[in-house]
Amino acid sequence: MKHSQTIGIISALLLIICCFLPWITINVNGATLVLNGYFGKVNESLTFGKQYIPHSFFCGICILFFLANKVWVKRANMLFTLLNLSWAIKNFIVFGFCRPECPTMQIGIYMLVTLAGIMLLMSLLPKMELKKSN
Predict the structure, then answer these.
(1) pTM for this one?
(2) CB 73 within 8 A of CB 126
(3) What does the pLDDT look like over 39-80, one tens digit per residue?
C-alpha cells in the first residue's frame, strides 16, 4: 500500500494523544471521576497506573520502524504493533470491568483500540521496493 507507513505513523501519534483523552467516568460517592491513560487512580486501593508509558514506548519504536526500510525491521514492527494492540485490548477490558459500579466508557478508550488496530494493519502492509533477480 502506498501510504501505509504514513498512516501508521499518524495513527501512532494519535494513539499517544489518545492516552490523555477521557477513557472512562466513574461515579464515586456522588462525585464523577474521569480516568485516562495518564490519571488512573480512583483511591488508594484501586489504581490503574500510568498506561501512557507502555503505549508511548511501543508507539515510539513503531514510528522508528515505520520509517526504516529493512525487511527485519518491518517484521519486528509487526511484533511491536501486535504488543501495542494487546496492551490496548488489556486496557479496554481492565478499565471497562464493572467493580462496585460500572464505568461509563468514553471515546478515548474506543479510539485507543481502533488506532492500535490500524497500526497493526499498516504494519502488515509495508511499502518496500523489491529487488529483481535474474
Answers:
(1) 0.88
(2) no
(3) 877 776 677 888 889 999 999 999 999 999 888 999 999 999
Q: How far apart are CA 125 and CA 74, in angstroms?
A: 9
Is the dihedral angle over the CA atoms 67, 73, 10, 38 positive or is it negative? negative
- Distances in Å between the Cα of 43 and the Cα atoms of 29, 107, 132 are 12, 23, 61
Q: Phi first, then psi: give them for residue 132, nearest 5 degrees.
A: -85, 130
Q: Tell me, rounded to whole angstroms, the distance of Cα 64 from its chain centroid.
A: 16
Residues 6+ apart with CB under 8 A from 81: 8, 58, 62, 116, 119, 120, 122, 123
On the CB side of 52, CA atoms within 13 Å amount to: 18
Question: Cα 21 vs. chain centroid, distance in angstroms?
Answer: 12
Q: How far is CA 85 from the centre of its chain?
A: 6
Who contacts 66 (Cβ-Cβ below 8 Å, separation ≥6)? 5, 8, 9, 12, 77, 122, 123
